[in-house]
Amino acid sequence: MLSIENLHASVEDGESTREILKGLDLEIWPGEVHAIMGPNGAGKSTLGHIIAGKDGYDVTEGTISFNDENLLEMAPEERAAAGIFLAFQYPVEVPGVATMTFLKAALNAQREARGEKALSTPEFMKAVKTAADKLGVKQEMLRRPINVGFSGGEKKRNEIMQMALLQPKLAVLDETDSGLDIDALRIVSEGVNSLRSPERSFLVITHYQRLLDYIVPDHVHVLAGGRIVRSGGPELAKELEERGYAEFLEAA
User: What pLDDT is recorded for position 136?
Assistant: First the structure.
């Protein structure tokens, strides 16, 4: 599914260049859920952005392959068409673009890329209603421009609904628990768990173990100093919650 080898990446920081990832290795197989944990500045969000193809990062060394294709040679829209989805830590508001118009355009573009026919308006409306009902996305929200006037929890629900409609092969969740109360966290997590399948993988980026009580990962990795310094099962997340990251920062 996803194979990352010796990944080095930097970003322009004022007049200088700052290296963020310093030899990161990661292997994700179909059907697996991997969690990346680590302190602020470790490179967690950078990793997610590079996988999705966000501008502003310079990959200086290493490779990323997705389903045996060179991901680094693909434009962001090609990565999305290949089945990669990024849920942002802070979903942006897009005034002037209707949520339903955006959803239909995105879904039918993905279907076309997969060689499937576009959904008719009745088919699309039915699919949206099914996904919205599961995530508590109200019809009134769907009539607004994208995320405009939404609370943090509503933005996250809307984003997971997009994921449910697009049916990606690899979903990268960048601190999806950020800004969520307990009820919203439970609803969003249930939406993610309903999409788990042998063909779909997840990369969950988080600071805190509480999200992993709801979305139980197969593998947990500690990212510190720009590379993965330890890997384990779900019990590793609980250990981090108790002990913190200090020892891993020293090791890095």
Answer: 76
Whether the Cβ atoms of residue 75 and residue 18 lie closer than 8 Å to each other? no
Q: Is the pTM value of this prediction over 0.85?
A: yes
Q: Residue for token digits 């260049």?
A: 17
Grade residue 30 by pLDDT with cuts at 50, 70 and 90.
Answer: very high
- DSSP three-state, residue 66: strand
The amino acid at 171 = A
Q: Helix axis angle, 121-135 relative to 152-166, nearest 10°?
A: 130
pLDDT confidence tier of residue 74, bands split at 50, 70 and 90:
very high
Give me the pLDDT at residue 139, please: 85
> What average pLDDT does this structure show over 163-189?
85
Query: Is 72 buried (19+), middle (13-18) or exposed (0-12) by CB count in 10 A?
Result: middle
- Sign, CA dihedral 132-136-142-143, equals positive
Tens digits of residue pLDDT in 130-159: 888 887 788 888 889 998 988 887 888 888
Q: Which two tokens stand for residue 96?
A: 């002037």
Roughly what angle, to the nearest 10 degrees, separates helices 152-166 and 182-194? Answer: 0
**Chain-centre distance for alpha carbon 217:** 14
CATH T-level topology, domain 2-97+169-251: Rossmann fold (3.40.50)
The domains of the chain are located at: 2-97+169-251
- The count of other CB atoms within 10 Å of the CB of residue 5 is 14
Q: Which two tokens stand for residue 65?
A: 């392959």
> Which parts of 25-170 fold into alpha helices (H)?
44-52, 76-82, 99-113, 121-135, 139-142, 152-166
Q: How confident is the model at residue 251 (pLDDT cuts 50, 70, 90)?
A: low
Tokens of 76: 């962001």
The dihedral region occupied by 163, where left means phi > 0, alpha psi between -120 and 50, and beta the remainder, is: alpha
